[in-house]
Design goal:
elongated, 29% helix, alpha+beta, Beta-lactamase Inhibitory Protein, Chain:B, domain 1
């Protein structure tokens, strides 16, 4: 009887913890970014992000990785039309909160991550 109670208790705890572990994103990287009452997510355009979140605290161009540099754009397209340079936009949420880094490839939001504390 005691074994049955222990099995039921372990099964209950496991069934509650497993769904949470499966949907939790990788540490340090998020899939959505909250701006006021709205959110932006991976796949949104730069226009949409700026419309919802406003101008970033700062931004910078980033070089493509070595693997991406070797790929040529499809025939009939310009480099800008096929993605162009990447950009990182920094949103400093102030003292006690994080600085969020949104990484774009061309016009598409590819990565959202936290980077230290704000000022």
């Amino acid at each position: 009887m005691l074994r049955l109670i222990a099995f039921v208790a372990v099964s209950a705890v496991t069934s509650l913890a497993l769904p949470v572990a499966l949907v939790t994103p990788a540490c340090g990287e998020d899939t959505v970014f909250r701006c006021g009452g709205e959110t932006v997510s991976i796949g949104d355009s730069r226009y949409t992000v700026q419309k919802i979140c406003g101008k970033p605290s700062r931004s910078e161009s980033v070089a493509k990785s070595g693997k991406d540099k070797k790929q040529k754009p499809p025939k009939g397209t310009t480099p800008a039309a096929s993605g162009g340079k990447g950009q990182k936009w920094y949103y400093d949420r102030g003292y006690g909160d994080y600085v969020y880094v949104l990484t774009f490839s061309g016009d598409t939001l590819k990565k959202i991550e936290k980077s230290g504390r704000g000022r």
